[in-house]
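Before any further analysis, backbone shapes were mapped to integers, which produced the following:

***
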Amino acid sequence: MTTQKKEEILTWNTRRPYSEHGQRMAATKLQNGKVAFVDIDRGLSYTTTKVCPGPVTQAFVMGCYDNSPHLIYPEDLEAAARKQRLHRQHVRLIHTTTIRDKQRCSTGRKHHG
């Protein structure tokens, strides 16, 4: 019996002012060692040209992102499928954030959690 390792997805917010929510990011390592990632607030998705030497980190992704020669658009099905899952995850995060923001505005209280 073969067990498949659960896909690890790293999510974070750079706090760069690209939207009212900052800049939300998500990334996952592909089987070839490269990293597929999405910038949900700017509607961009890329794959790194560099192989990630260990677990995916914000520093690795942002280093590649800010140095654009290290990026390519997805050309293989694995990267495209993973990016679709990353986008779906971020849509759920956006929905949750929007609900929390509306609750905060209507009650005048901050939501913690």
